[in-house]
Amino acid sequence: MSEKAVLVFDETMTSYNFGPSHPMAPVRIDLTISLARELGILDEMDVIGADAATEDDLNRIHSAEYIEKVHKLSDNPTHGDASIGLGTADNPVFAQMHEASSLAAGASVEAARRVWTGQAPRSVNIAGGLHHAMRDHASGFCIYNDVALAIRWLLDNGAERVAYVDVDAHHGDGVQAMFYDDPRVLTISIHEGPQTLFPGTGYATETGGEGAEGSAVNVALPPGTSDAGWLRAFHAVVPPIVREFNPDILVTQHGCDSHMDDPLTNLMLTVDGQRSSYLALRDLAEEVCGGKWVATGGGGYAVMDVVPRAWAHLLAIVAGTPVNPESATPDEWRARIAQLRGSAAPLTMSDGRTVGYRSWEEGYDPASWLDRSIQATRTAAFPLIGLDPQP
User: Fold this and answer.
1) What is the pTM of this model?
2) What's the CATH code, domain 24-50+105-385?
């Protein structure tokens, strides 16, 4: 096994492009890679390309009819098909849409394959994390569900238990739906509550289908939750459940739209809090599954100030060489930001926050919306897997 972690990336992965006015601009990927390169992070990783997922691959999670329709719209992107969620404001059609989406899916499968076969200790596909796509329709900027396909590949190739943790501000509904009845897959999503944010799902009471009770876990956070509250919720729920599930491998989705500057969400995290979550998931992978960790990107729409710094931290942590938050951003990268938007770029890899949180063991406050949300999840999910829900 190579001692280096793997980044699955080449320039063609920026071809997943809904157009110049769409919030999910591919420049966020490009700026992340250039920042990571200038910080020396990529020198610590094996950077590899990937083949696009084939139709047979995609059929493992998507219907044949849906794939055929995506193909047709990809070849003729002059109209959409609302019945499959394409041609909408969220998911406009674009030329070569099938090819771009298949490549993102294939990259996540390759990331999973590298770790599962022992060729790398950890891997990451920041162009992946398209967690809203459903079996028969597109949703929330997501056409093919690369994360679900990677998990399916792991199951088909000998994994007995896969834990999936989703820290995007939006509920990981597509991945949850695809494995809701499968007790071999634990899906945990920590997100802004469905009362205030798309997709309107992810209640604590969503706990898995018949025969898979306790396999879905949802932490629905109040709008305005910041670093300390988010980390309190994460540590009160995620580590104990993952430990009890005892997975063979950890798969994670790292949408950074939980940031306070993100234009589409209402959470209030900083880059520093997000970095802390990446470190916690790395430590959890080391503790429960021998370090086997496959990470993906996801949402994130503050495409210049936030996404590149957050995901450069993720890449560095996957590489095993975390970047000091006080490190300066490189001059060349700052100059590029200034050229793109005509204003200054962030000067450091930090938002200048000291990250801390109050442990759940220190007490439950029923007057707190956050604490009630945490307790709702513990009450709904913990007994199903043999854990005590009480504070």
Assistant:
1) 0.98
2) 3.40.800.20
